[in-house]
Design goal:
Blueprint: H1 12-34, H2 39-64
């Protein structure tokens, strides 16, 4: 029905990878809460895991980000 604007083409894999990144960091926080960590501690676990997971996921994000036609 509606066409996707041209600048948005090819970014679906990046968005999916970002959601996987958030779910992984959230799973660490939920796991911490399961073991009896307070809400503040779970938030710190989420932030710490997000920082630790950022290094491997940055490679994934860079590989999945589409290149502009003049960058190929």
């Amino acid at each position: 029905m509606y066409q996707t604007p041209s600048p948005m083409h090819g970014y679906v894999p990046v968005v999916v990878a970002f959601w996987i990144y958030l779910v992984a960091a959230g799973a660490v926080a939920l796991g911490a809460m399961t073991f009896g960590v307070s809400d503040g501690g779970a938030l710190l676990a989420f932030l710490f895991s997000a920082v630790v997971l950022l290094k491997p996921f940055l490679r994934v994000f860079r590989r999945l980000t589409p290149k502009a036609s003049h960058e190929e």
